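Sanity check

After download, print the first record. It should look like this:
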Amino acid sequence: MLGQAIADGILTGAIIALGAIGVSFGLQILRFANFAHSELVTWGAYLALVFVTFAGPGTPTGPLSFGWQLIAAMVFAGVLTGVLAWVVDILVFRRLRNSDAHPLSMVFAAFGVALVMRHVVVLIWGHGSYFYTRELQIALEVLPGIRMLPDQIFILGLTFVVVAAMHLYLTYSRTGMAMRAMAESPSLARVCGVQVESVVRWTWFISGGLAAMAGVFLGLTPQLHPEMGFNLLLALFAAAILGGAGSLIGAVVGGLLVGLAENLSVLFISPGYKTAMPFLVLLLVLFFRPQGLFGEKEGSR
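Expected structure tokens:
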């Protein structure tokens, strides 16, 4: 039981981590809490569904329940969701930034954008649930007492590959270094010649792409519904704040801790309370490290 709960927690945490990276970037680079980010998760999942509806899930590859079409759908959804995030910024958030709006105004605007995006999903696809594929799978025993579906193993592996690629991108690419500079000090980055709008554009695009990937993975295990992103919202922010705003590794570790806290808690308490467990962990960590596990104190920058 314990081993299975840990495995389930790591899987849940990996999906949360992909979404939390965008939230963390928003907190530190864009300088506001983007509560509409969870709706990008939903939109990414449904845009992939559009691709799968026309192309089909494909012939299952090996033990997986899908073929190459779903991978192509994920890439398709990632690009379109990244563009959608950027367009939302142009229409709403850029105007507020240029008018020096109060951070609370940005937050309330994000709530409004989230409501609009969620209801557009309901308007187009309805309240029902959808599936990418209806293929049945048999769980594999990966370790003694721990069983996972092949799709879950694929999700876990691809997530860590994407996170590693993001780490290399932020460390060695010009845009990645500019994003890290903006996260450290926006004013100093401007003085050093960093193209702020370019960094903001790439931040939205990357955040949207990662959110879409999280949405596809969430929809694959097991279904899509209009509330899927909203239900993940608090977990995304808990993971981002727990790991430390602006930290890629922090978002990943925070996501894993949130996933583990949720799944391990059901061994001791009613499953109805499991969504509260990440916040208990968050409060304990912030009591000792207000900046999060991997965040830096303002005075140390």
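If your output differs, re-run the checksum step. Summary of this record's structure: DSSP finds eleven helices and two strands in the chain.
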